[in-house]
Amino acid sequence: MLVFARARRRSGTSFQFTTLNGTTFLPSSDYGVGLSLTTATCDTRAMAPLSPRLSSTQGDVLTEDLVKTERPWNVIVWDDPVTPMSVVVVIFRKIFGYSQNKCTQLMLTVHHEGRAVVWSGQRERAESYCVKLQVAGLQSTIENVE
Question: Which domains does the chain have, with CATH numbers?
């Protein structure tokens, strides 16, 4: 996940912030009270790392890009001797919307290896998937990718 904000200083100490999704805001004079920042997420796999850049277009304008990359979280399903394999496939299709072949492959990985990573991504969404799997009767956990 990528969190991105751009700070722009125009002559003096006034800063204007623009997020990746276009939200623009100015901090108040009392050092951040009323400051709201919207985060945007995007796929960073094919993206080159950004370096801070300075530009000068009108008078004294300073532009600096701030980039923070967070590690993804894995949703893991554990093998249990109770739930039938066909039910596991149906649960995967219902929760993740995967194809029949992918669900069968994941179910067989769980059955033979004792666990399988069924989804990877943002923490909040991983927690949501984990809870949905547990409500459906499967043993699942999340872990941070190292």
Answer: 2-69 (no CATH), 73-144 (3.30.1390.10)
